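Title: Prediction job returns without error message
Component: structure pipeline
Severity: low
Priority: P3
Assignee: unassigned

Description:
Job completed but the reporter wants confirmation the result is attached to the right record. Sequence as submitted:
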Amino acid sequence: GGNRLSGLKAYYHLAKSLERSHEFDVVHTHLSSTADMFQFPLMAKIDTPHVTTMHSNFPFDRVEHWIGDADKYFLEWIEPAPLVTVSRRAAENIPFKLNVVGAVHLGVPMAQYRFQPNPPDDYFAWLGRFAPDKGPHLAIAAAKQAGVRLILAGIVEHGIKESADYFRDQIEPFIDGDQIQFVGPANMEQKLRLLGHARGFLNPITWEEPGATVVIEEFLEGEEASFFALVDGKNALAAWLRWCSENSIFPGQSIESSSFESSLHSRFFWKSFSFSQTGSACRNEVKPRGAKAR
């Protein structure tokens, strides 16, 4: 919480935690924000095997729309550190020669998800954190142009000015409680119900996300209605939604075949994204210490 421009507490907690590194077999850290960069010079001093999972993209020297050049100053500590990405594409996007020892997909608790073969309700869903790069404003625009209902669920980071302003200016004015609805943050039960009964899932992100768990969750919980869209600023999404509505076709369902083999669907996602599979990937593919880049 608090102002993300301040890294003092982040540095303190990282330093104090790593002081106890000798008590553990492996230290696993995460890289997703600017303050996380502090860990690399600190970890360079420990003897315990360690590995870092990268959840976001470079540059990490950034604040809102401002981008600096300090990433390169940390390379002497980052380059030898074993790094894991959440997708192989994320590894390809790294602008430096780093010690990427493997890719481990984000896992989900498969037992909590049940494929829903029943006809969906008459709404589309958007789920996530309210931020411009997540595209909820694009989902709203597409739904309004297509004349379909949209239910939005997720977190508004009121403590971050940019996020609060974005929600107030680009999301809130369009919430009417009818065509465009906002139900607030969703717990697991609410999320499963929202995705499982949705006619389709809109994910019009505006950046190349390393790994989107919510998309995996929708494919596991939804039926043919599952829909994943990258929007380029044009009206393609709205036109597709309108066409689906007018022709009673659910996104993700082909005209030639309206059936979907749920057993194949389930086996694919279990093989790729279950906790057991991602855990195996960690053991088989990732060597925390002394591993060499591929």
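Comment from assignee: result matches the submitted record. The beta strands are 27-31, 50-54, 62-63, 66-67, 83-85, 100-103, 124-129, 150-155, 180-182, 200-201.
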